[in-house]
Design brief:
Layout lengths: L1 H9 L2 H33 L2 H37 L3 H36 L4 H16 L1 H16 L3 H25 L3 H23 L17 H10 L1 H25 L7 H27 L1 H9 L3 H28 L1 H6 L6 H14 L6 H13 L3 H27 L1 H29 L25 E6 L5 H12 L2 E3 L1 H11 L3 H7 L19 H19 L2 E4 L3 H4 L6 E7 L2 H11 L4 H23 L11 E4 H4 L1 H19 L1
Parallel strand pairs: 1-3, 1-4, 2-3, 4-5
Helix pairs in contact: 2-3, 2-7, 2-8, 2-11, 3-4, 3-5, 3-6, 3-9, 3-10, 3-11, 4-5, 4-6, 4-9, 5-8, 6-7, 6-8, 7-8, 10-11, 10-17, 11-13, 11-15, 11-16, 12-13, 12-16, 13-16, 15-18, 16-17, 16-18, 17-18, 19-27, 20-22, 24-25
């Protein structure tokens, strides 16, 4: 890891981006092409009605993918977190439960799809002319859902186990087999859309088998049968960790569903009818997804470069990497824009030909709907950049802005005004507004990037080290903001003559990771609602997870080596198995907290209550996320005390007496 960090901080930016981005681009492209191959051969062998049928079935596939990625990425994050905490048994149970849950959900979803396929197709915009093709294609695809979903879940876990090449190989193997089988089943065997579906599920089965074989070859854990025993809390945690992937995929499902229904509704009154718009725009969206996949792959591959250098305060390298990524992304999106505007008729012919109306609408769709696709070269990398540097709110806003916040409302409003063409106009409107938002965020952030010296935020260790304890003891102090809990911890450390650990962890983590102390302080112990959207476009730990693991390791190390007082950071939970730990929670009423906040932290009295509430909520979210416990639950602690009933001095005396009494019991 140290060598990799040195590379991230010293190697040429261009070389680093090539090294990290190419594997990401390949994986993203394989996923995108998997969805397009069927349409190419169906269009050539069946016609545009066959392609229209695959477009109304596609949301079903995406829902299955949403669940499988939620469990795959969630299990991957759980595995990484538990391995980082040196808890292999818990890591095994997480993987076992993630795979088990994937199996259960996949078979349930398979059953639902078979029983309610006609109703689901209606929900996703199926027309009478598309129904026969859609049911034929959809029933076979539904049969393959368990293999596709479990295989995708396993793929994410395998990548997290440290074998990304194997995971990529299984994906590529399935994609290549699909390309080989499609023409055989569609043309040679004359199976039409059913043949395309059969080729797909056979290919998915191959990926599933290859990934299932790996279960017995995990490098980091040794799975046993008992690890698959269901545990509700583990399943809940795995699902929560992967919710960002679920939201990302489901947003696409909503977009396609709205789009198909609006195209069918307004297309029927146009010369194009309902089927041509549904077919064409589905193809256009999938072609644009290839463009987006390349940009996402480049940006995701650059995440470690952004994150490391931002944390290490190498802001010149951050700006250099950002310029490089934006430059490449803009070049790619510009080339795509030129193709979409100049040769749309040739692009659509790849997916089969149609009548004059079909070709006319295809050209309109490419030229109007993708008019501002060039903006994706800025908007997509921006969201991933903010994710990499720990700005979860901005990243979350950019992640959901185009698909949910902008595109769907734009389609609904513009279609009422302009009918069928309004659905097409919604594309550039959403792209343009999302672009403006991204540019505003980027300009502000780049202006804030300054090469200032790294000033330590650690407090001077002014606690005594004349230890009066005869046995090693650790006191963890959790506290509401403004309750005086940190000062109570310092008084305890002074009175017992032991070390106080608070900001010291920031300094130690900074030395180990290269992140600046300012960056760590701004990102640790804080988790807001939008943080759930920032586990990544590609599976892996976010910055907060990495900080939590590092701090947990350091905490256990110091607790095993010396008597000390540890402030916050889920220390009561992390050290819960240590018999020499006394867990304290300090709270206070709002009036007294406001008084402290204004007196000691210089807060504006009129805004203090709101800020105190906000900070405590972030701490509670952080605690809940990593411990699955409620922060203020008294059962988590040995003593909960109101600092203003006795005053901080006497509270510290009370805790010290408690420590001395427990020391006698342990002796």
């Amino acid at each position: 890891m140290e060598n990799e960090e040195n590379i991230l901080g010293k190697e040429k930016i261009g070389k680093l981006i090539r090294k990290f981005s190419i594997p990401c681009v390949v994986s993203m492209l394989v996923n995108s092409l998997y969805n397009i191959v069927d349409q190419i051969f169906i269009g050539q062998g069946v016609g545009y009605l066959g392609n229209g049928a695959t477009n109304v079935v596609f949301p079903i596939v995406m829902i299955g993918l949403a669940f499988s990625l939620m469990l795959g990425d969630g299990t991957s994050a759980y595995l990484s977190l538990k391995l980082g905490e040196k808890k292999k048994e818990e890591a095994k149970k997480g993987v076992g439960n993630g795979i088990l849950l994937s199996c259960i959900l996949s078979f349930l979803f398979f059953a639902v799809c078979l029983m309610f396929l006609p109703q689901l197709l209606n929900l996703f915009g199926c027309t009478d002319n598309l129904r026969e093709y859609a049911i034929s294609y959809g029933r076979i695809i539904a049969i393959g859902l368990p293999f596709a979903m479990i295989g995708t879940t396993l793929n994410s876990i395998i990548r997290a186990d440290g074998t990304p090449k194997y995971s990529m190989a299984t994906m590529v193997s399935g994609a290549v087999l699909n390309i080989i089988l499609d023409p055989i089943f569609i043309f040679k065997l004359n199976r039409g859309v059913a043949g395309a579906a059969e080729a797909t599920i056979i290919s998915q089965f191959l990926t599933f088998i290859l990934n299932a074989i790996y279960i017995r070859k995990f490098k980091s854990i040794d799975l046993k049968l008992e690890d698959f025993k269901p545990k509700f809390n583990v399943c809940k945690k795995v699902s929560a960790l992967g919710i960002s992937s679920f939201i990302t995929q489901m947003s696409f499902v909503f977009v396609v569903s709205f789009e198909n229904n609006l195209l069918g509704k307004y297309g029927v009154d146009s010369k194009f009818g309902s089927e041509i718009p549904i077919t064409v725009l589905g193809i256009v969206m999938k072609i644009s997804q290839i463009l987006n996949s390349i940009i996402v792959g480049i940006s995701v591959g650059s995440q470690p470069i952004f994150g490391y250098n931002y944390g290490a305060r190498n802001f010149d390298r951050v700006k250099q990497a950002l310029k490089y990524v934006l430059g490449i992304s803009l070049l790619i999106s510009t080339i795509a824009f030129i193709l979409f505007q100049t040769i749309p008729h040739k692009l659509i012919l790849i997916f089969g030909s149609g009548d004059e109306n079909y070709m006319e609408f295809a050209c309109l769709a490419f030229r109007i709907y993708l008019l501002l696709c060039i903006c994706n070269g800025i908007q997509i990398p921006s969201g991933i950049f903010f994710q990499a540097i720990g700005k979860s709110i901005k990243s979350g806003i950019l992640s959901i802005s185009r698909q949910i916040v902008l595109l769907i409302p734009a389609m609904l409003i513009l279609s009422r005004i302009f009918g069928l063409m309004g659905v097409l106009y919604a594309g550039p409107v959403a792209d343009g507004l999302a672009f403006v938002l991204a540019v505003v965020f980027l300009i502000k952030e780049v202006r804030n990037l300054q090469n200032t010296p790294n000033v330590s935020n650690s407090l001077i260790d002014d606690t005594s080290t004349n230890n009066i304890l005869s046995k090693q003891m650790v006191i963890t102090v959790s506290r509401e903001f403004g309750s005086g809990g940190r000062y109570v911890g310092r008084l305890i450390a002074d009175k017992l003559g032991i070390k106080l650990y608070d900001k010291d962890f920031i300094e130690k983590v900074a030395l180990e990771t290269g992140y600046s102390e300012e960056y760590i302080e701004n990102n640790e112990q804080k988790r807001n609602i939008l943080a759930s959207l920032n586990n990544g476009y590609y599976s892996g730990l976010n910055n907060a997870d990495e900080l939590f693991i590092k701090e947990s390791e350091l905490m256990k190390k110091v607790a095993n080596e010396e008597s000390c007082v540890i402030i916050g950071r889920c220390s009561d939970f992390i050290l819960k198995d240590n018999p020499n730990v006394i867990k304290v929670f300090v709270y206070s009423n709002m009036e007294d907290k406001i008084k402290r906040a204004t007196e000691f932290y210089g807060m504006d009295k009129s805004k203090a209550e709101k800020e105190i509430t906000r900070i405590d909520k972030l701490r509670a979210n952080h605690y809940k996320y990593y411990t699955e416990r409620d922060w203020k639950n008294p059962l988590n602690y040995d003593i909960c005390v109101n600092s203003d009933v006795l005053g901080v001095e006497k509270v510290a005396d009370l805790i010290c007496e408690m420590v001395m009494e427990k020391e006698k019991v342990l002796n």
